[in-house]
Design goal:
about 200 residues, alpha+beta, Protein Transport Mog1p, Chain A, nine-stranded mixed beta sheet, 4 helices, 12 strands, about 30% helix, about 35% strand
């Protein structure tokens, strides 16, 4: 028990130092992170298990749940986190994908905030050589963490936050770099639709 607490304390301090020193921090205003353009969002999704309601970008179709299961993965073999997508939306015209689900930790002794900060540091370290940009902003009483990174010809926005139960919810939007101009307004509108279910 004490070893886990010490481990998390050291990793938390290290990850916080990395987050503040190692990645690029965007100075964008919170209003630049999301929008309220209802013309750019699709169907209403309300999920009690995730504790949120949101809208995917317009024309991004819900894929079969079997595909969501195939995307379930460990972030890395030794990190103690598992991402469990519940939803996968796909835009056929530009091959953009939105996945949404819970990130769980196998350490039940750590506080919810410690787990969130450790996860943020873990992702920052993982994508530090991928044009990493970190953002935090508040919208609808939710404190969002956003990590943007590039992998070859793809760009991804990982958006994660705590629901009312303190669980980590993650929405990841990924798209081809050449689709940025058309896709980004839709993603911002989708982010603007996110609400907690109390």
């Amino acid at each position: 028990m004490k070893f886990n607490q010490l481990r998390y304390s050291i990793l938390l301090i290290s990850s916080l130092l990395f987050c503040y020193c190692g990645g690029k921090h965007s100075a964008e205003d919170s209003a630049e992170m999301f929008s309220f353009d209802k013309a750019l969002i699709g169907v209403d999704v309300s999920d009690e298990n995730l504790g949120i309601k949101f809208n995917p970008p317009i024309d991004w179709e819900l894929m079969p749940s079997s595909l969501s299961k195939k995307m379930e993965m460990r972030i890395s073999p030794s990190d103690g986190f598992t991402y469990q997508p519940v939803y996968v939306f796909f835009n056929k015209s530009n091959s953009s994908v939105l996945s949404g689900g819970l990130v769980t930790s196998n350490d039940s002794s750590a506080s919810a905030n410690s787990i969130l900060n450790f996860y943020k540091g873990l992702l920052s370290s993982k994508y530090k050589n991928s044009n990493l940009v970190l953002n935090t902003f508040i919208h609808s009483r939710i404190s969002f963490n956003q990590i943007k990174f590039d992998l070859e010809n793809l760009t991804a926005y990982k958006l994660f936050f705590q629901n009312s139960r303190g669980e980590i919810v993650q929405l990841e939007y990924s798209f081809r770099k050449d689709s940025l101009a058309s896709v980004l307004p839709e993603i911002k509108a989708s982010i603007g639709s996110i609400r907690l279910i109390n």
